Every structure is written in structure tokens, then in C-alpha cells.
Amino acid sequence: MKRFLLFTFCCFSLLAKSGHASAQVTAIGPVTLTVRDLNRSLAFYQDILGFRKIADTEYLGRQYEELEGLFGLRMRVATLRLGDESLQLVAYLTAGGRSIPEDARSNDLSFQHVAIVVRDMDEAYRLLRSHGVEHVSTAPQTIPADNIAAAGVRAFYFHDPDRHNLELIWFPPGKGQPKWQHPTNAAGLFLGIDHTAIAITRTDSSLAFYRDLLGIQPKGESWNKGAEQAHLNFVEGASLHITGLRAASGPGVEFLQYLYPAPGKPYPADTRADDLWHWQTTLYTNDASTLFTQCAKMHRTLVSTGLVTFHDTNGKDAKCFIVRDPDGHALLITEKTD
């Protein structure tokens, strides 16, 4: 299989909630964003945010059309590295693809971001200001002490050139993953990707999919509200139930359920992979065929036309497909052959 679909992670086995062995996710891989101008986006992510490009390849052909659900595609995919984590930028070279609406808000169900961990929030914010980066938050916000789970965490939302939402996040001692307190490259300003966050309708429905079917385990939750949260998300009066989940390795997945105001606009039902609000999160499994069958039984919407098999240079096969979660977010579920 091509580099775009394969990365090396540790594997582990999980049991489904029912107690029966089940094909489930072994690791979370890169998050992929659809962009308009790949060269422009590369300059932004590399020159401002410190990502390092490790691959830049074009793809076309029947298997990729079936995987992405788009006829006649030709796409350029760049893989970027920051710390231990990866991000992928995809530009479709064939015509098509709609822009993120100007009135998109953080509580709309199409909302997704990646949270980039920083060594120093004030320094990182000054750097973004010097490059004229568009704010979402009014300024970096500090979670107040009465929110025990997240007290002292500092965060800031902003836009990339295509108006994708990104987050800077700083963890005080005792918060976040241990590695953010002891980063390998302490001199770097941008350290890696902690998680990808998605707006959801109901936490229980999302847990039924991500935890019970896919096996990605909850690791904590918090209820965030107040002036700081409202100014962070740029949603007046925002009150959220936030749930963090992780697999054995890779970045986490974070649910953002808006208790107030209610969840915003639904994920557009006619979304295509070349629309700029289309993100997809890579999930690794040892058995994509079984997960494909289980997703079909749950009547989950597919982006792919079916289960797609890729052949790597060593003659091994790996199956994969792209499916939408209960609120429309796309997940690339793929096997690895090494």
C-alpha cells in the first residue's frame, strides 16, 4: 500500500463491550485535511507551525476513486510531521470542491480541529500575530481553577489559509499526556499533536460508535463553560461536555457536545471528499473486513464505494474504507501490512 495509507504503530487487542473478541482499532494515525492550494498550505504549516514535510506524492486510478468516492480524481498528498504525530494535506487537482462557509461556527457538526501542543503559549501567540493569522478565539484563554479536570490549561483557536480550525494548547504540570511535560525537543516551540476534536450531537451515540464498535477508550471528561470557554470557541454562552478518547498509540479523539447553545448546523449530507470542510482521521485495525461489515449493520454512511484492497510493493494486501461517524465526520479505517 502507498505511504498515504500506511504508517507503523504498535498493535494491541481489545475486547468489545459485549465481551466477545472483535476487530477493533489498534492505533490512531494522521488526520487529513482537504486544502485548495497545497503549496500555500505547506508554507503555512512548515514556516509558521514548524511541521516538517516527509512525503509529497500524487495519486490517481480506480482504487483511489473507490476509496474517496470520487470519479476521475487526481490528488496530491503531503505528509507532515511534528514531534511523534503526522498531519496530511490533500489537494484535489481535478475540478471540484467547495469552500468552508463564511458563517461556519464551532458548534456546527462539521467542526473539527487538531490541537497543537506548544512549549510557550505567549510566544506561540506572538508568532501567529506576526504572520497575521486569523483568530477564532479573541485571545489565548486559561481554563479556570473551578474546572478541576482542565484547570490551568491554556488554549487558542485560529484558522489556516482555508479556514480550517486549529488549536494551540499548553498543559500545566499534571495535565495532559506525560510526554508534553518532558518533550524530547524541549527547545521547539511547537511540540506535536495532542488530539483531534469533533463537534457531536450526543455523547452516548458517539461512544456507541467509537468505544463500543471501534474500541477507542474514554480517558477523561470535563464540563466547560463560562467566559473563557465562550471566548475560546467564539460561541456566546458556550457550555460543553468534553470527552477525551485514546487508542494504544497516536493522538486522541475529543468529543465536543454543546449543551448550550444546541449543536449548530448538521454535517452537509452531500459532502464530497474534495470539499474543504472534509477531514478524515486514520484508524488502524487488523481486520478492516469485519469492521466494514459491522459498520454496514449499524447503517453507517460510507464515503468509499465499498471495501477497497491495496497491494503494497511486497505483494501484501491491505483492505480499507472510509466511513462517516454518527455526526458525519469521516474516518479512514485501514489495515497495515508491516
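Second entry:
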Amino acid sequence: MESKILVQDKSISEVNLFFLLTMIWSVGIQFLPIPANSYQYFAFLIPIIIYLFFNRQNLERILRPNMLNLKSIFLIILIWLSILPVLYFIVELYVSLFGNTLADIVSEDAHDTFIFNLFFAAITPAVLEEILMRGIILDGYRNKPKFIAALMNGLLFGMLHLNSFQFFHTFIAGFIAVYLVLGTNSIFAGILIHVINNGLPLVLDYLYPINTNVGYAEDPNFLSLGLFAILGIILVVFFIRLLFKVNNIPFKEDSYISRERIFTTSLVLSIVLFIVISILIIYSI
């Protein structure tokens, strides 16, 4: 089928501006006297509510509130298991190159109890970040090829975390989450893998506490880690294609492709803001 070009499409510029304003807002509120466990509600929930209110006529298209079938849930779990070697490789490479100071700061628990950790570190970000990124932002890129939409979503998702350590593995996680949402036409696919990825380590840590005297491995075997990461990528591609097939969703691109420019002024400013903040954080520690 011949592609139809959408000349008047302005959805990307709109969500790029929204993302920039959300980043500025999320940075600004860190200087306000609010409880640490309510940060994401101020940073993300408020912009989400405002955006969805002004776009309430498109709520179903933006949020994709479709339930997952059991086959999809099973495949999403397999995809998460397959991507773990890739994420682990990236984390170990970062720590090897830049040290673990920032990694330790980011990984610190902000609360004292397991329930609080699970709710604020797993469930809350899974819901709010997925609505923000795989709902609102992905919808803005709906007329771009899937790979481009996933690539940009991963980039923005990485920058959303405002530090260099989390950027790289959240970039990959965001990229994969886009394909899960598109392959199921459900925001719950992104929420599910997000909850599993953030929550399962908390559960395991609660059941089997980690020895705090044991730090990061000083000399990881990057050859072995790299081979497992490559195998993980192959499995992820296979399972994602199967996910599309299970849900009878075409993996090939739709006929509507936008020529709208991606690197708008808002996006460039977001990238600059992220780089500046990342550098300031590194120098501050």
C-alpha cells in the first residue's frame, strides 16, 4: 500500500513542547519543600492531568485502555527476562567507566518499609511514567514509523530521569516498551513490564536481603555479558514479533506517515537541559 503523507500534522511539535515544559516543571519542584515520596505526583501527574483535560476528546486513542490477554502477559514476561542481560550489560559498563557513586545514590531506597518502596518505586512510576511516555508522548509520534517512534520515546524516557546513569538503560527500556504497547494496543503492556522491572528486585531484596558489604564486581567479564546481551536482543525481537501476531496487529508500518520535523526547538532545548543537569549532578558528587 502506498504511504499517505500527512502534511499538516503538528502532533510531534506539541508533545515535544509538552515534554520540555514537563522537564522544566519537574526540575523546578525539586527546590520546593515537598515530601520525597510525592515527587512524581507533582512532577508528572499534574502535567498529565492538564494535557489530558485539553485533549479529552482523544483519551481513548492516547491511553489505549485495552485489557491484555493471557498470551500477551506471558510474552511480556518473556520479553522482560530476555532484555535483562542487555540492561545488566549497560549498567556494568557504565559503572566500569564512570564508577558507582551516582549509581549508588540513584539506587538508594527513599522509604523504610517494603510496602512504601513497592508503591512509590514500582507502582507509582509504572502508572505515571507509562501514561506520560507510552501514552501522551507516543501518541504525538503516532504517524511516524514504529522504529522512529520507539527510538525517540526511548531517548525522551532516558532524559526524563535527569541523570546519566539511568539514561542508558531506561533508553533501552523505553524503546522496548513502545513496541509492547503497539503490539498489544494497550498501555497496560507498558505498565506491566514497568511494574515487573521495578518491583521484582524490591521483592527479592525484601525476601533475600543483599549483603551491603558486597559492592559492584570490579572486573566483570564483558565478553560473556556481551554474548548474553546479543542473545537477549535476538529473543526480544522474536518475542515482540510474536506479540504482534498474537494480537493480530500488523508489524509493518501503517499507510499514514508524517513528514513533520522531529528535532523541533523544544526537543533541542530538552536535550540541552538534560545534558546541563547531568553534568551538574556529576560535578556535585
